[in-house]
Write a structure and sequence with these properties.
With about 350 residues, the chain is an alpha+beta fold. Helix content is about 70%, strand content about 10%. A 5-stranded mixed sheet has the order 2-3-1-4-5, with helices on both faces.
């Protein structure tokens, strides 16, 4: 996973968290408001200035929006990711301001929510999103305190909160910038470490560890979706002679070139070590596998740049589940078929079923 993909994944995770927090907050608000509207004493009679349904329209809309939001990111997790965050910010701030306008004095209890918007979005999504939420909060708050009868009366209180919304997030943004820079470096290090653990350093192909992990996924896919696959065990012919004649530097270049040529034909190609490679491919008809094997042999046999080194390989093919129903067996039988190709003169392929 590269750094950009990792960042998008983290954004997606935070989006889901934000959705659940938002819904929980709105539900708790509705519960409190329902109690105050119907059961509280005379000190809350001002809430009856509007019918109950007017108080519920905005919260229910936001809940509906968040349910749709969650469905969207389940099916299209990275579509317009930044844009939908901005839409969520403005819905949060302006619908909160609308509700605070309706509830009058009760809105004093929720003024701090705007501070959460300014701080939380920045902490989760970085400096750029932080400034967008900062502007949205200031605009929504200024509109509220200049239209709400309660906040027009409580002018000093309203201005005090405005100063808080202006100053406090600015200090936080420096912290956010430093925090996200450090987090980005840590994630980049983690991504590099993960890549090194699962990839061969010389060729850049995935390694034996990744092969074992992904082979199990292919097996799981077969049992869930019925997709058959085959394992190609590929061993370069006479590679020791190339090393002995031209040296290890040329040998390394040969391995890199072989890796490129193999992966061009079958993307899911792995280096097990030395001059041994393995590949996994899904298929429907055996003829597809034969054509792939022929293409592999032909592609490997193309002249190298210096014109002195010629590549060839022996290939063994086992099919899942026809030739085995476990990781160990399917790998072993591809290896056995490859060995038969070696014994039969090299530069050829065999199916396990041909040698069983």
């Amino acid at each position: 996973m590269n750094g950009y993909s990792s960042l998008r994944e983290r954004f997606l995770k935070h989006e889901k968290i934000q959705i659940f927090i938002r819904i929980l907050f709105i539900v708790s608000f509705l519960a409190v408001f329902y109690y105050l509207y119907f059961y509280a004493g005379d000190e809350w009679k001002n809430l009856h200035a509007y019918p109950f349904y007017l108080y519920t329209i905005a919260p229910l809309f936001v809940i509906f929006f968040n349910v749709l939001y969650y469905v969207l990111i389940q099916y299209h997790p990275f579509v317009y990711q930044k844009e939908r965050l901005i839409v969520a910010i403005f819905i949060d701030t302006f619908f909160t301001a609308y509700m605070m306008y309706l509830v009058g004095p009760m809105s004093a209890y929720y003024a701090g929510v705007f501070l959460w918007f300014s701080v939380a979005y920045g902490m989760r999504y970085g400096k750029e999103i932080a400034y967008i939420s900062y502007v949205a909060v200031l605009v929504a708050w200024i509109v509220l305190i200049n239209t709400s009868p309660f906040w027009l009366e409580q002018r000093a209180f309203a201005i005090g909160w405005l100063i808080t919304f202006i100053i406090l997030p600015l200090y936080n943004f420096k912290l956010v910038e430093a925090l996200h820079s450090s987090v980005a470096k840590l994630h980049a290090m983690a991504d590099r470490s993960e890549h090194m653990a699962t990839h061969d350093r010389l060729t850049g192909l995935k390694n034996r560890y990744a092969f074992d992990e992904e082979l199990q996924k292919f097996i799981d896919d077969y049992y869930h979706h019925g997709e058959r696959f085959a394992v190609f065990f590929i061993d370069l012919d006479s590679f020791k002679d190339i090393n002995d004649k031209h040296g290890h530097d040329i040998g390394d270049r040969v391995l890199k070139e072989a890796a490129k040529r193999l992966q061009k034909i079958i993307p899911n190609t792995y280096r097990l070590g030395g001059d041994e490679f393995v590949a996994i491919v899904k298929y429907k008809q055996d003829e597809e596998l034969k054509n792939l094997a022929k293409n592999l042999l032909f592609n490997l046999s193309l002249p190298c740049k210096n014109g002195e080194v010629f590549l060839a390989a022996s290939i063994g093919i086992s099919r899942y589940p026809d030739d085995g129903e476990s990781e160990f067996v399917i790998k072993k039988r591809a290896d056995e078929a490859m060995y038969q190709a070696k014994q039969s003169g090299k530069n050829r392929y065999f199916f396990y079923s041909d040698v069983a």
